[in-house]
Amino acid sequence: MLPQKLKALQTISRQPKILIIGDLMIDQYIWGDATRLSPEAPVPVVNVEKESSTLGGAGNVAQNLLSFKADVIVAGLIGDDVAGKELLKVLADENADTSGIITDKNRPTTIKTRIIAGSHQIVRVDRETTTTISPECEAELFGKILPHFATADLVLFSDYNKGVFSPSLCAQIINHCRSIHKKVIVDPKGLDFAKYKGAYLIKPNKKELAQAVKFEKISHTEDLKNAASALFAQTDADYVVVTLSEGGMAVFTQNSYQLLEVKATEVFDVTGAGDTVLATLAYFTALGFTVEEACELANHAAAIVIRRVGSASTTLEEIIADMEKTYD
Q: Is the dihedral of CA 301, 13, 328, 258 positive or negative?
């Protein structure tokens, strides 16, 4: 990312329309302190001081995009329950289009509850069903999102391996998007990355990449390059972007490799940082920035949110300020 691009960021007027398809969930937080161990088991006793909740998964990606003032359409599954209604209300209150969300009466809305003592997460409790989406729900979901493909600037997959992204639904969406020249950016999960074949960009972390291409581990740059090559062979993607935690971000095409160093100076909580990277990549790619430029901006965005506890988002103004510090 070149310093002269800062001016372009400050004068953005057109907001992109982005269709997010993914696993929707609620992130609950129970905050307190722990000063003693339980007499019942060697575990801390947390004295609860407050509780809060926010959107997780694809909902967190949506909130990141909304903080950039993007036009956002959200698609996915919720249960017929209180959490599902809460999720819809939060998105609607933030002006997201929720017409792509369907209700599956056979599964609950996913809830992840984190118990935090001080600034340390003690435990996470998940309430969810992760079976693959039924053929009936798959057909209903595709029918809901079909009208949005024509008007969206870009399509995002936010896959948390909760059952939405069956191979058949992935193929149906990606093939349709390719036929109308729409880019699909994927945040992948699971072991079957072949289901994303034909996507424009796939963004795994190092561990996800190793698992997907059946590498025991990725220890060196040469391992990383070989793993990316294997993923290109599986998916025929245009780009593979690998997030490397404290190592930064690696950007691959089939013929090139670029390492972007991490921008963070302090790390408090990485929860949701991948969602921020995904949203930032999508936002700036949809505006016409190159993938390499969008990745540089995403690196700055991630550096901002991991300084905060809990899933967080950032703004265009904060990214500009963070970049200005870098180039001072």
A: positive
